[in-house]
Amino acid sequence: MKPKVTMIAWNQNDNYVVTAVNNHLLKVWNSCTGQLLHDLVGHTDEVFVLEPHPFDSRIMLSAGHDGNVFIWDITKGTKTKHYFNMIEGQGHGAVFDCKFSPDGQHFACTDSHGHLLIFGFGCSRPYEKIPDQMFFHTDYRPLIRDSNNYVLDEQTQQAPHLMPPPFLVDVDGNPHPTQYQRLVPGRENCADEHLIPQLGYVATSDGEVVEQVIGQQTVDQEEQGLEPSILDGMIRQLQLEQDQRTAAEQEPAPSAPQNGEGTPRRG
Predict the structure, then answer these.
(1) pTM for this one?
(2) I want to staple 197 with a disulfide (CB 3.0 to 4.6 A). Which of 47, 72, 167, 250 is the partner?
(3) Count of alpha carbons within 13 Å of 48, Cβ hemisphere only?
(4) WD repeats: which residues (predicted)?
(5) Topology of domain 5-121, per CATH?
(6) Rounded Cα distance, 157 and 145, in Å
(7) What is the radius of gyration, based on Cα positions, of the chain?
(8) Highest mean pLDDT range out of 9-18, 118-127, 214-223, 229-238?
(9) Over the range 24-61, which residues count as b (16 or more CB within 10 Å of their CB) and which as e?
């Protein structure tokens, strides 16, 4: 097998370069001389994640499709910590990405089964306040392309980046309570009635009809009061007046005839 480099990373102070090779070895190089310093052995499948510690130049994290996460001391060529991502009843989960926190006290990984793994010091009590399963209700919505080849959401015919903030649902598409919906950026200060999604029945690709979140619940005009409609009317009136002024300014004004005779010239 011809060796191929799958990933490369400099350490925190750029003195070392670590390369991941498709023979499952990690190689530590002196970045100034190009000398090979260490072969790091431990992975059993290809590695696509190399993450340097944010301030400790000795530490490098690696993770791969074998489900292994290693923390290495690259100056000594030794591993200091190891985690194997075993999922009960499903085998191991390939680790696709890892990132350190800015203070270097935590790191987070994502795997092929949609899990977010958080490692660090202290207790896990703060993380127990949120549900185990969190997805956006738009995560698996089908997309289409318009006549200009732009991407649109198939259901709403809107560009995805112009759609309102999504709702949080579980793996079956059931929406979470309102206190969790405020975790979504853009919904932090929403009223309670805007945090209740509208449910509807949608046909899946298999032909099965399931109940899913289809959009934001609309509020009746009596519940909203008259203020929103008055404000909308004022905005429409101001826009109409501005359009009229713009149209008047664009019309060419005829110039006055000289000595009261002749045909008016163009302005």
Answers:
(1) 0.59
(2) 167
(3) 11
(4) 1-39, 40-82
(5) Methylamine Dehydrogenase; Chain H (2.130.10)
(6) 9
(7) 30
(8) 9-18
(9) bbbbbbeeeeeeebbebebbeebbbbbbbbeeebbbbb
Per the CB < 8 A criterion, the answer to whether 228 and 218 are in contact is no
Inter-residue contact 190 to 183 (CB < 8 Å): no
Read off the tokens for 70.
């290693």
181/260: higher pLDDT: 181
- pLDDT confidence of residue 235: 66
> Residue 161, SS3?
helix
| Highest mean pLDDT (candidates 61-70, 200-209, 252-261) | 61-70
Partners of 93 in beta bridges: none
CB atoms inside a 10 Å sphere around CB 222: 7
Contact (CB, 8 A) for 176 and 131: yes
Q: Kindly list the domain boundaries of the chain, sorted by start residue.
A: 5-121, 129-215
Least confident segment among 70-79, 169-178, 215-224, 253-262: 215-224
